[in-house]
């Protein structure tokens, strides 16, 4: 299976640079915490679960330096946690790494092995959660099903088969008759560049549409359901995901199409009572002003570029989790 991250024999981190897809499948070797932080910030590595996994392995790079101390590791955790504010998997994974570092005993040779074990445990857990999410969503996708999605919540975004795409991959394996409609996901095209790339690589039929075509495609009929990922889910079920998800949920409701959010329990944030408590990352205006290196917006026009929006819980049919298919109420009770 495609592996967007891996560890080298030397203990460094090898990541697929997703900013270069689909033109080139290029891997980068990251040897320092600063390089990992840059890769997360610049979206070379992205997707809430994979960000958390990558950051965990980034912490191990601090611990492998000669004479590394607990203070060095904790500083690395702080640096990595500051890279992106919305995905709750990032602080969740780093909290585990801080705990593992403090529990490793006296500083010295035991620090790096303890952190490496914890990083692998986080990765293995996410892989298992993705499989469970896929199994929870599989009954929703009979032969001939068509799934609409936005952004990328597949192998490229997680430690396993994906969240939103997990049920798709399992349906493809079980009966081989499932189709995907992928919204292109402006401004950085994670749908057309990444989702379409990994699905075609796996021989899953996929059709790319622009974000503005989603409502018309739903009205046209034949879409079984919408499944999206999540970067943070509030206690009441309000969900932050890639910008455009809220509009897709409204269109799905208007056309009577079920709308599901797929996410592992590491994405749930009981500290945020509602979506109003979720921090929304704003990114550089250049991402909107330019397209494939060419200026496409009037130079003096202002730009608003939030990376995420919040979909209210009442627009969400259900949550595909590693604990099964849940309602917002059941999700809250699970905590």
Describe the structure.
- Helix 2 runs antiparallel to helix 3 (70-81) and helix 2 (48-63) runs parallel beside helix 4 (89-102).
- This protein starts with a strand and ends with a helix.
- The strands form 4 sheets. A 7-stranded mixed beta sheet has the order 6-5-4-7-10-14-15.
- It is built from 11 helices and 15 strands.
- Helices cover 38% and strands 17% of the residues.
- It is globular, with a radius of gyration of 20 Å.
- The model has no long low-confidence stretch (mean pLDDT 95).
- It has 335 residues and is of the alpha/beta class.
- It folds into 2 domains: 5-130, translation initiation factor eif-2b, domain 1 (Four Helix Bundle (Hemerythrin (Met), subunit A), Up-down Bundle), CATH 1.20.120; 132-334, Rossmann fold, CATH 3.40.50.
């Amino acid at each position: 299976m495609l592996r967007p991250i891996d560890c080298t024999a030397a203990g460094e981190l090898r990541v697929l640079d997703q900013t270069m897809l689909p033109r080139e499948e290029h891997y980068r070797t990251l040897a320092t915490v600063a390089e990992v932080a840059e890769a997360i910030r610049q979206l070379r590595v992205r997707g809430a679960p994979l960000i958390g996994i990558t950051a965990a392995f980034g912490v191990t790079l601090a611990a492998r330096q000669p004479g590394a101390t607990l203070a060095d590791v904790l500083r690395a955790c702080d640096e990595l946690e500051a890279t992106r504010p919305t995905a709750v998997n990032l602080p969740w994974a780093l909290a585990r790494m801080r705990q593992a570092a403090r529990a490793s005993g006296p500083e010295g040779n035991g620090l790096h092995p303890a952190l490496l074990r914890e990083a692998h445990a986080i990765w293995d857990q996410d892989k298992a959660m993705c499989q469970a999410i896929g199994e929870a969503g599989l009954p929703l996708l009979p032969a001939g099903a068509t799934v609409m999605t936005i952004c990328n919540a597949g192998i490229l975004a997680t430690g396993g088969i994906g969240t939103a795409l997990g049920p798709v991959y399992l349906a493809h394996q079980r009966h081989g008759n499932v189709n995907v409609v992928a919204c292109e996901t402006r401004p950085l095209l994670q749908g057309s560049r990444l989702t379409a790339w990994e699905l075609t690589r796996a021989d899953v039929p996929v059709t790319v549409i622009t974000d503005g075509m989603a409502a018309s495609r739903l009205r046209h009929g034949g879409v079984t359901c919408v499944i999206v990922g999540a970067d943070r889910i509030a206690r009441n079920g309000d969900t932050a995901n890639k910008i455009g998800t809220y509009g897709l949920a409204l269109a799905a409701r208007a056309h009577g199409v079920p709308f599901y959010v797929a996410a592992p329990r590491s994405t749930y944030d009981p500290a945020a009572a509602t979506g109003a408590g979720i921090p929304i990352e704003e990114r550089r205006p250049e991402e909107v002003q330019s397209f494939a290196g060419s200026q496409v917006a009037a130079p003096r026009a202002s730009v608003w570029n939030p990376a995420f929006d919040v979909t209210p819980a009442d627009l969400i049919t259900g949550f595909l989790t590693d604990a099964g298919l849940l309602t917002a109420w059941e999700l809250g009770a699970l905590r």
